[in-house]
Structure formats: C-alpha cells, structure tokens
Write a structure and sequence with these properties.
This protein is of the alpha+beta class and 281 residues long. It is built from six helices and 13 strands. Helix content is 27%, strand content 32%. Helix 2 packs across helix 3. It is globular, with a radius of gyration of 18 Å. 44% of the residues are buried. The mean pLDDT is 85.
C-alpha cells in the first residue's frame, strides 16, 4: 500500500477584510516507520494570537509523531503537550494565544487509520470501493470546544463553564456522496467532559468488498461549514474528490474549489484548513 499526503490552508473573507492573518494551519508527511500523518489546527478568533498558537500546536504534534508512533494517540498527545509547554515557556506565549483545535490522523503502513480530534471540525473518509464519501462533523455547545491549551491552567475554567451550562459535544455521521445526503448513523451527543481527552475514530482501510480501490482520509477545520452558497456536505465532497493524488493534490483541489466558490458567492467566510492521507493499493 502506498501512502500520499498533502495539506493546505486558506484565509477566509472575514479575516481578509479585517487585515488579520489566517488562523488555521495544517501539516502532513511520512514517518520514518513508513506510516503517514495529517494535522489540522484552527485558532479561535476571540483568543489571542492564535495564528501563532495553531502553528505551535501543529508543529508540536508533528514532532511528537516523528519521535515514534509507539502507543496510542492519547500518549502521543501527552508528548505533544510536553513540546508545546516547553515552547510556550521559551517564547513567553500566553495561554490565550494557544486557543486552537487539534485534529490528527495517522495511518500505519498496514492501512489501519486512527484520528484524534481535540475541539471541533470535520473528519472525512472516501472509499473508492463503494464510491462513497463519509463525514463526521463534531461541534461543541456554546461554540466553546475543549482546546489543547485547556490541558494546563485553563482546565478548571473550562470545566466550570461546561458544568454550569451542562454543555455537550454533538457528533453527526453522514454519507455525503452520492447525493442526496444521508445520515449514516443517528446524531450522537456526549457530555463535554467525555470529549476533553479527544474524540477518537479508527478504521481499518484494508477492509472492504473488493479491497483494491483507493481510500482517502481528510481532516478539515470548521471553516468548511461557512462557505457562501454551499452546504458543508457539498464543500467536503468537493474537497475530497481528487483526479490524481500526487504532489500538491489537496492544494490543487482547494484552488479549484475556491475559484468555483467565487462564481457562486463570496467564498469561505472563515479560514479553511485541510490535510489528507491518500491510501493507494
């Protein structure tokens, strides 16, 4: 099995018009063990310099993965916190600068994929065997997700807020192609506290009716939910449809989609980041 990766991120019209930087970031690549990874981070607009925070969180996770993929994603996330904490102290970065989500996907050379989502966003899985694209949309009540930054001094503040408001995490699972869009499973609602250590999704991509097609796993920031003239399912479906998964294939797909989006409306309101691992038999 061959693994190909790519990533891209774009500024939304809201930040562009305000003269603010893109607060989303993404990375992808291949590990020395032969596996591949994809990472997406989305900075909170009401935080501090979260464009910097999204980059620091992403690069900390990337280094944690490169140190070795022994153990679970939860253990690797703990390693990421070590790098992030050291960098924060060294650069005197404030906690509010680190208010950003973290989506991480890792695919083992055998084809087993695991995804961890700290915060909100969308996970997509395209299966050429059956010609379908599935997506999981994760949203937190009050638009206040559990960011990795809450691992430290802000954890008590977060817990107090969600305990007082009885907040929850909602996970919707959809089949978005072929249309019409359909729920694959019922919407699931979790206690906010059950999502504090990450929402985990795993899949054996070698399984399937034919097992000779191509599979892709995509991670998206919640900017895909806010594109003028498009449903979020349509956005994810368009961004996960690749003519050829070589080179900068995610960047090419994003460029094409944004050109089409400008013809229909004003384009993405929020920043968008995506990272993809493509599995080829």
């Amino acid at each position: 099995m061959h693994l190909h990766t790519d990533h891209t991120f774009r500024i939304g019209t809201h930040h562009q018009h305000q003269g603010l930087p893109c607060q989303d970031y993404a990375r992808s690549g291949t590990l020395d063990t032969g596996g591949s990874y994809a990472i997406v981070s989305d900075g909170c607009s009401s935080g501090g310099n979260t464009d910097i925070g999204a980059r620091l969180i992403t690069l900390s996770m990337e280094q944690a993965l490169r140190d070795g993929f022994g153990g679970s994603l939860e253990l690797i996330t703990q390693r990421m916190h070590g790098y992030l904490g050291a960098t924060q102290r060294l650069l005197a970065v404030k906690d509010r600068d680190l208010l950003a989500t973290l989506l991480t996907a890792v695919v083992h050379p055998s084809g087993v994929a695991c995804v961890s989502l700290l915060g909100d966003g969308v996970i997509a899985y395209a299966d050429d065997d059956v010609g379908d694209i599935f997506a999981l949309k994760v949203e937190w009540a009050d638009n206040m997700p559990f960011y990795p930054a809450y691992h430290g001094t802000l954890r008590d503040q977060f817990c107090a807020h969600h305990r007082e408001n009885a907040a929850a995490v909602t996970v919707e699972e959809w089949r978005i192609t072929p249309t019409p869009y359909q729920y694959k499973n019922r919407t699931r609602t979790y206690s906010a506290f059950s999502g504090m250590d990450g929402i985990i999704w795993c899949h054996d991509a070698t399984r399937g009716p034919e097992n000779d097609g191509h599979r892709s796993i995509g991670l998206f920031s919640d900017g895909v939910l806010q594109v003028d003239g498009y449903s979020w399912q349509e956005v994810v479906g368009a961004l996960m449809t690749f003519k050829q998964a070589r080179g900068s294939f995610a960047r090419r797909r994003m460029n094409r989609f944004l050109l089409d989006a400008k013809k229909r409306g004003t384009g993405p309101f929020d920043d968008i980041a995506m990272a993809v691992i493509h599995l080829e038999k």
